[in-house]
Amino acid sequence: MSTTQAHIKIASENSYIIYFGDPDSLHINAEVSASIAATCEQVRRHFGARLIDLVASYASLLVIYDTTQCDHLWAKNTLKTLLNTPQKNHQDSGQLVKIPVFYSTKYGPELTLIAQNSGLSVEQVVSIHSTTEYRVYAIGFAPGFAYLGEVDERLATPRLATPRLKVPTGAVAIADRQTAVYPASSPGGWNLIGLCPAPMFNAHEQPHMPVSVGDRVQFEPIDEQQYLAMGGVLHEL
């Protein structure tokens, strides 16, 4: 990592934003994501209690710090030093998080559509989706909504032409070559393929989410009985 690849800009009175590429990018780039994940680890380690929050996106990282514990110059110089420090390859870094999914054509109505469009069986779609290891590229849209990629190109499916007014909590979905779990009920236009019983966001716990940017995710198929035993709720669409 070097300052020729990343540059720092003032974002507010107590934050800097680091751009690792095109600031308007919404596209997956594994190398950029690995650099952001590595920088997150270094910032947490060097800022310690001075750090308030980190907000990562596809090509940027917002660093929010406590000005009662450090000044702007210290924060910027520390970030510059970190960006100029060679990092090890972080392609396989981050914790591996297993997330249970009840794949269902009833509660994931686009599962059949994806199978038909890909020329695969529903069982093959489930197998491909659940055996792929995904990277957490960004967190946004809603608290706890983690953008995971990349989905196998055979399963890539455009967003719905007309978004749903209400997607249930825990819905597992695909949009283009990304997949995600809806952390709370909300409008949404992604293709639903199942339900996850595990909470993806809890404001009253630390950490708030089971995953962070840079982590790796793999889905584990479960049946309806297991889903209910884990506290899942069957949402009618």
What attributes characterize this protein structure?
single chain, 237 residues, alpha+beta, Gyrase A, domain 2, Cyclophilin, 2 domains, seven-stranded mixed beta barrel, four-stranded antiparallel sheet, 13 strands, 29% strand, elongated
What features would you describe in this structure?
With 237 residues, the chain is of the alpha+beta class. The protein has 2 domains: 7-83, Gyrase A, domain 2; 96-229, Cyclophilin-like (Cyclophilin, Beta Barrel). The protein is built from 5 helices and 13 strands. The strands form 3 sheets. It has a 7-stranded mixed beta barrel with strand order 5-12-9-10-7-6-13. The longest helix has 18 residues, at 30-47. It is elongated and about 55 Å long. The mean pLDDT is 90.
Shape: elongated
Residue-averaged pLDDT, rounded? 90
N-to-C series of helices and strands: EEHEEHEHHEEEEEEEEH
Number of β-strand runs? 13
Q: How many structural domains are formed by the residues?
A: 2
CATH topology of the largest domain: Cyclophilin
Cα separation of the termini: 46 Å
* Beta fraction: 25-35%
- Give me the CATH architecture of the largest domain, please: Beta Barrel
Strand order of the largest sheet: 5-12-9-10-7-6-13
Helix-strand category: alpha+beta
CATH class of the largest domain: Mainly Beta
Tell me about the biggest sheet?
A: 7 strands, mixed, barrel
> Tally the helices: what do you get?
5
Gyration radius from CA atoms, angstroms: 19 Å
Helix residue percentage: 10-25%
| CATH superfamily (homologous) name of the largest domain | Cyclophilin-like
Oligomeric grouping of the chains: single chain
